[in-house]
Amino acid sequence: MVMGKSSTILLRVVLALVFIGALAIQGQAAWWLYLASSADTADVSYVHRSTVLYVVLALLVIQVCCICVWKLAARVQHGTVFSPASYKFVNIIIAAISFGSIMTFALGAIMAPGPEVAPGVVLLAGGLGVVLAGISLIVWVLRQLLAQASHTEAQAADLRTELNGVI
């Protein structure tokens, strides 16, 4: 079954909007990071700089995932998603989300010792890290399903070839 053209167009519009929005916010956050690094250290704390850097990197994770989903959607549209070439895009998504999870735990660890941040915020960062790790595991399971489907597709192609040879 091939993905419909309207579904693909809608998905690509959403992915493009997310990518462009993330890029715009990332540019603004990078500007804030630049201002924070050039400002007096008494005015801008280490936690603030770390948070802005986290935002920039988290948006990069989102952008990487958008690009990979775009590529996978193109493969679905062309009916070539059930091939080992699709694994690299899924692997990149898994790595990006895992990196985001580790990054979130690191931000929580940076925020934890100081009195600047409420303990509830640190707990939220830890919870978000766990959620991201769970999403990474879900995508890994979906990758395993893709591998099984690819193997089944290859077997079906072999059987069709044998059947055509018999007929």
Structure description:
The protein is mainly α and 167 residues long. It has one domain. It has four helices and no strands. Helix 1 (5-38) runs antiparallel to helix 2, helix 2 runs antiparallel to helix 3 (87-111) and helix 3 (87-111) runs antiparallel to helix 4. The chain is elongated. The two termini are 26 Å apart.
Q: What is this structure's SSE topology?
A:
Elements: H1 5-38, H2 46-77, H3 87-111, H4 119-166
Taking all Cα atoms into account, the compactness measure Rg is 21 Å
Low-confidence stretches: none
Tell me about the largest β-sheet: none
Q: Helical amount among residues, as a percent range? A: over 70%
Beta-sheet strand percentage? under 5%
Number of strands: 0
Average of the residue pLDDT scores: 87
The count of helical stretches stands at 4
Domain tally: 1
Tertiary shape? elongated
What oligomeric state do the depicted chains represent? Answer: single chain
Order of helices and strands: HHHH
Termini Cα gap: 26 Å
Q: Which class best fits the helix and strand makeup? A: mainly alpha
Pfam family, one: DUF2975
InterPro entries: DUF2975
Keywords: Membrane, Transmembrane, Transmembrane helix
